[in-house]
Structures are given as C-alpha cells and as structure tokens.
Amino acid sequence: MPDTLLSRRKSEHLQIVADQDVAYTRGTLLNNIQIPHQALPELSIDDIDMSVKFFGKSLKAPLMITSMTGGAEFAGKLNHSLAEVAQDQGIAFAVGSQRIMLRHPEVTADFTVRSKIPDGVLLGNIGAVQLQEYSSNTIAGLVDAIEADGICVHLNAAQELMQDEGHRDFKGLTEKIAQLVESLDGRVVVKETGAGLSPETLKQLKSIGVSYIDVSGAGGTSWTKVEAYRATDPSLRRLGEAFSDWGVPTAFCIIAARQILKDKAFLIGSGGILSGLDAARSIIAGADIAGFARPALLAFLQSGTDGVIALIESFTKELKTAMLLTGSGKISALKNAPRIYTGELRDWLSTYNWSGGEEIED
C-alpha cells in the first residue's frame, strides 16, 4: 500500500471507528418500530425461507456487508476476508472505496476479490465527488477491473466538510450520477455514509432513474464525529462535534424511501444495524435487505473471519426468529407484517414536510 495522505487518512478512519465512541446519540429509531407478537405462527423454523434476489443473483439471507473505508494498510486483507465470508454465508459484499486505484493502479489486487466470492453479489465503491474528476467510462472501468456486479456511489458531503483536505464543491453531482447510471445500464447503488437520505434527495434520485438505493441512515457510525476525533485544527474539531448527530434517522429514511420509490427501486436499509432483529425491523419498514459495516469490522479485528462468520450466523438466527414470531415464512411476508410506529419516529412521520407540502404517511 503506498504511503500517501489518502492511505494514512483511511487507516486513521478505521482505527477511530474501531476504538472510539462514534455512534449517534439519538440512535436509528428502529426501536420505535414495534412488531406485534404472533403466538400461533403456524410455521416450522426449518421451513422459513430468507432468500432474496439482488442484482439477478440469489442471496441466502437478506444481508450485505456494506462498504468500509478503502485504501488503508490492511484493506486488501479485509476485502479478501470479508468477500470469503460473504460467499460462505450467501450474502452480498461491497469493497471499500476504490478511489486509490485511480491514483495507484498497483493496489488493484487489494480489491480483486471475485475469486473469493465467485457466485455472490460483489459491488465496487467510489465517492460521488470523484465523478467530478473522472469520466463515467473511467468509473465504469473500476467495475470491470474487479469483475463486480455493480458499484456503490457514496454521498458524504457532511464528512467532507469536516476534513481539512475535504471537498467543498458538490455541484453537478446529480447529473454525473445520472450519466454513470446510463453508462452502467443501471448497475449503480447510490448510498449515503451514515447521515441518511431525505425525502428531497430520494426524489432527486428517483428522477434520474436510480434503481438501487442504500439509505445509510443516522444512528450507526457518525462520520462527522469520526472526523472530530481525527481533526488537528481546533475549528474543524469544533465543527465535527457540533454536527456529530447530524442526519436523518435510519428508520425514517427507509419508510420515506419505500413510500417515494414504491416498487421502482431495490432498497438497502443500513445505518446502525446491530442485530438480526434490527434487520427485521428495517425490512418491515420497507427495505429489501439490511446492510452493516462496523459490526463486521469489529468482529474481524477481534476474531478474524471466524468472528465475522459467527456474527452473521447470529444475525441470520435472530432474523429467522423474528420471522417465525411474526408468522412470516418468506421475506415478502415479513414486509407485510403488522407494525406500530411509536415515539420520535412517529413524530418524524407525522410532522415532516418537504418541498411541495406533501407528508410522509405513518
């Protein structure tokens, strides 16, 4: 791995995420989704089918290890190991940011993990701001370079503003994303990085034909808080602390996304998913699959691939239990399970107005 400002920053990110309290104070609001218990489910646990289709391939469970920061010293080991786990568990996987590949092609091997996940869904990853710098064809080449099924384009304006070396210009990104969607025949997942997608942003993405969306809502890792830990400039540290809880909560993002996008987009619910029960709540709210990153990173740092396998097995067991206790034999049934929205989530749903005066239905 080349010793560059980018690689050092990515290593610092992973260290801070692993060692510091970087979670949102407010939480995901997924706990505000109450699921009525069904005492006569008329199901056998062995008959429950958790499979879903994603990018035309079958997943054994509706889970995805989402993109983590790329370009760090052990990015290669992390990508290869997590891809192998995803193959073993039958879930999807996205590599860390491939930005460093554009500047240092010699690190491509850190991201070429298709041999580890030959049958599964593998996605690349690039920042939306890189679309200002590189052509759609160049970015599409990142997909081909690692034989990925598609690419995640991450939006991280809040995080960039907290970095001394971060971007300050976010003009024209909607058009650039639209061009990439066209270049890749729709094989683009647009995602946030922990601050969530508002109804306004969701409507923008819908207007340009984005058909895969990862809400990455507030409630998990706060990258503004991460940058506050990392900052050496006191003014940037203060800025990161002031915006440490900035974002749209995960639960609200998912509900809003499903209402706005209807059945026109595949929806990934991520941002603070810490268990299979969280995954179940996100699917009930409208997600097609649930995504997580920090839990996988922590499990890997503590116990390697065995730790990540154990984590995913726990997630799937908890999700299957939630399905049985809601009388849901398939994921499609879980999506239609009864639910009650309470507390702060209900407040968001009942009072949020976006441009045009429309309201989110609760």
Indicate the topology.
Blueprint: H1 5-19, E1 33-34, E2 52-54, E3 57-59, E4 63-65, H2 75-89, E5 92-94, H3 99-103, E6 122-127, H4 136-145, E7 150-155, H5 157-161, H6 173-183, E8 188-192, H7 199-207, E9 212-214, H8 223-230, H9 234-242, H10 250-261, E10 266-270, H11 276-285, E11 289-292, H12 294-325, H13 331-335, E12 340-341, H14 343-351
Parallel strand pairs: 4-5, 4-11, 5-6, 6-7, 7-8, 8-9, 9-10, 10-11
Antiparallel strand pairs: 1-12, 2-3
The helix fraction, in percent, is: 40-55%
How many strands, which pairing sense, and closed or not: the largest β-sheet? 8 strands, parallel, barrel
- The first-to-last residue Cα distance is 49 Å
N-to-C SSE series? Answer: HEEEEHEHEHEHHEHEHHHEHEHHEH
CATH homologous superfamily assignment? Aldolase class I
Taken together, the total number of domains comes to 1
Shape: globular
Kindly state the number of beta strands: 12
Supply the CATH architecture: Alpha-Beta Barrel
Give the spatial strand order of the biggest sheet: 4-5-6-7-8-9-10-11
According to CATH, the fold-level topology is TIM Barrel
Give me the number of helical elements. Answer: 14
Structure report:
- Helix 11 (276-285) packs across helix 12 (294-325).
- The strands form three sheets. An eight-stranded parallel β-barrel has the order 4-5-6-7-8-9-10-11, surrounded by six helices. It has a two-stranded antiparallel ribbon with strand order 1-12.
- The chain has a single domain (5-351), classed as TIM Barrel (Alpha-Beta Barrel), CATH 3.20.20.
- The protein is of the alpha/beta class.
- The protein has 14 helices and twelve strands.
